[in-house]
# Entry
Amino acid sequence: MTTPLQYLSHPLLTQKQVTLAVLREDLLHPSIPGNKWRKLKYNLQEASVQNTETLVTFGGAFSNHIAAVASAGQEFGFNTIGYIRGEETLPLNATLQQATACGMQLRYLSREDYRRKDDPAFQAELLADIPTPYLLPEGGTNLLAVKGCTEIVTELQEPWDVLCVASGTGGTLAGIIAGAEGAGQVIGFPALKGGDFLKTDVAHWVQAYSGRGYTNWELQTAYHFGGYAKQTPELLDFIETFYRQHQVLLDPVYTGKMLFGVFDLIEKDYFARGTIIIAVHTGGLQGWTGFKERYKLAWPTEDLLS
# Structure
């Protein structure tokens, strides 16, 4: 399937003589959109090769990854178990309701235990009673996930100078850098406050996957809006205005912050005239429902989320 590329029309783009398009990875798969499908694609193949019965993973209560793994399990015939950070809170939020509706079994870890999730001995304890498990890390980032994300670039048919993408654990960014193989410029927009830590993580995954290091990428860390899943009226106004102008719904955790940053950099003449920028829409729209619950928002309407 070819991912649609939607070119934007905006007075700022005309003024600065910059081309901007959105790569609609959010439309890639009906229930596992965007980078989550890219990350899971080869992991699901490997799980099948290993005759896996159960996909096991980690995430917070509003995790796009938890929702995606649950959907993948339902679609491809795996049992799923999600280890959730923190205590159980009832009623379940929309993300966890969706996960359980797909058949995922939820197990809860204290925040202290959750910090041990990458420890092999602790993982062995968690997996001891699970038949033929396949363990996926928090956020889904591993070498097979990086491999899947390289295809975001290698499948692109249109010319580009700059690729922009929101970053959580850095796996998607690493895949794009590896897929670009040194061409153009790649910019990651961390959704977390203090996102500079991703420099080390992303460089590690690129090196581990490709055996090479590249210098044509950077992080723009000023567009976190207070931290992960934090928001401001300015950000929400931008997302709503963007939808009204372009009929593309962004999410307030990742893609909204990234596109806000792209437009701000264009305004500040960060890009030379004639630059062709492609912003990757990595999905994450299921998170809107939980976000609306938390902040008591009346927008976006349910028909935009269906």
Observations:
- The CA atoms of residues 143 and 209 lie 6 Å apart.
